[in-house]
Amino acid sequence: MLSLSGEQRSRTARRPPRSLKQEYQEFLLQRIENTRMRSRGGSAGDRRRGGARARGERGRTVLLTEVLLLEHVDRIIARRLRLPSFPRWRQKHRALRAAQRAPTIGASNRTARS
Description:
There is one protein chain. Helices cover 74% and strands 0% of the residues. It starts with 5 loop residues before the first helix and ends with a helix. By secondary structure, the protein is mainly alpha-helical. The chain has helices at 6-13, 20-40, 44-55, 64-81, 86-101, 105-113. 0% of the residues are buried. It is built from 6 helices and no strands. The longest helix has 21 residues, at 20-40.
């Protein structure tokens, strides 16, 4: 039976943790996408596919102006949602993660009684 060496196993089993900046970008994208879905009743991917069908002969190419327009709309949505800046989000996120790592009072009482 073939097995991976310890070095290969550790590389494939563990990914490096995502940076806070990556998590922040994911947070923004989720909030913006949720707002788009509520306002239009569909996902942004559905709208993009519909736009590609309407373009016809251009096929799957995306014009630079369309990409710039989508980015501009994303910035407008983020501003209207009053999403926090990265430094403010990072401060709250770190506090939340620290609280999640700390044992809860109920959990320590249960283990003490057992």
